Amino acid sequence: MTFTVTHSARFAVATTLDDLAVDLDGSLVRPGEPGWDEARCAWHLDVDQHPAAVAQVRTARDVVAVVNAARQCQLRVAAQSTGHNAAPLGDLAGTVLVRTGLMRDVEIDPVTRVARVQAGAWWMDVTNAAAEHGLAALAGSSPDVGVAGYTLGGGLSWLARSHGLAANSVLALEVVTADGVHRRVDAQHDPDLFWALRGGGGSFGVMTALELQLFPISEVYAGVLFFPAERATEVLQAWRAWLPTVPDTVTSVGRILKFPPLPDLPPHLAGRSFVVVEAACQLEPGTADQLLAPLRDLGPELDTFRPTPVTELSQLHMDPPGPVPGVGDGMLLHGLDAGLIEAFVAVSETTGPALLSMELRQLGGAIHRGSPTGGAVAALDADVALFAVGITPTPEITAAVHAAITAVRYRMAPWSKGRSYLNFAEERKSGDALFGPEIHARLREIKSTYDPADLIRANQPVTPAGR
């Protein structure tokens, strides 16, 4: 259904930010006011956002009020839950930043296996609630990643090779479009908008909630094999040879990690570099052990594989437990041959300590097949997704990390698909590079229908056709 939030006289459309501040159930924070720096801060701490105001919304009605007021004030609107991929948004000048972090309710229907999730929820909110019923969502690899942004960008989970991208698990979305209409969109209602939102990013409206299909999975066999970084070529070539032997119920990552010498890291990891294989297996432990045997025969220094509740899968990738300054970027690669591994290891060595992590994430399976009823990004046509990232505590280190990422892109270019995966694109990309020319053109037409004035901003924007 499509419905418009009704405003009484008290809730008339605000024509100034002062009016909007009074109208909200949440709060409006402006430059110089108490709490401003905290309100404008993204998860990536080196992203310096300076919007016209930050609206900390509590309800869908708040979002409607913000969108209408921004239009009246000739400002734009950008939504953000956590800001894990905020860098491409820029400084947000002339924009009201809608922070949805106060909207984190999660409702689980164990009979239909559906979760209704408010737009500010983190994946830990969903996985914990679903696990109480023996269910799992196609969650991100970090517990504090926002559900909304991750899902709008496609969503690569540890269950993706068997169940596809998270965007394909979306049954419905509740979104406020640029005209101030609060819509519930699905396959029957605003189907073009429903298609665009599933993988096309946040350019089409401000999400207030989404409904996700859940899956009857409570435990997987998961862990990490750690080897000294000096064995990177040997281990990653063995991982490459192992990949064709695994079923779609296995999703894995080959990765080079360079841990900084931090006191809060375990002593056996701090200040050391490793090549690791991470995997989640939806298999019985005995079957998984047999499958892992060729990698274990290499003699890892540390083996953490064990039966793992789905609530603990978010720890597998060892992402930072809180906000950090960092720079990263990714690319989709094809032709997973010996030369690709050699180039990957070589560029890791030449970039030195600048990059904390370089990973190759296994694709294929349901990620490649997609869904016939899927949205703008229903599949990824590549063998692996590469992502490289470095921590950037100082300007000098930031420059070194940028140079290292440029070196990675250049060295891995022979295997590039010429396409990027939106959630791994932490620098601005062209729409054709993210979606391909045909899908990008369709997205622009849909943007023209729902937001011809380009009111809604996204980190990887889709502009209206003709602009």
From TrEMBL:
Its cofactor is FAD. It comes from the Bacteria. Keywords: FAD, Flavoprotein, Oxidoreductase. InterPro entries: BBE, FAD-bd_PCMH, FAD-bd_PCMH-like_sf, FAD-bd_PCMH_sub1, FAD-bd_PCMH_sub2, FAD-linked_Oxidoreductase, Oxid_FAD_bind_N, Oxy_OxRdtase_FAD_BS. Pfam families: BBE, FAD_binding_4. Residues 47-217 form the FAD-binding PCMH-type domain. The keyword Flavoprotein applies. GO terms for molecular function: FAD binding; oxidoreductase activity. Belongs to the oxygen-dependent FAD-linked oxidoreductase family. This is FAD/FMN-containing dehydrogenase. It comes from Nakamurella panacisegetis. The lineage of its organism: Bacteria, Bacillati, Actinomycetota, Actinomycetes, Nakamurellales.
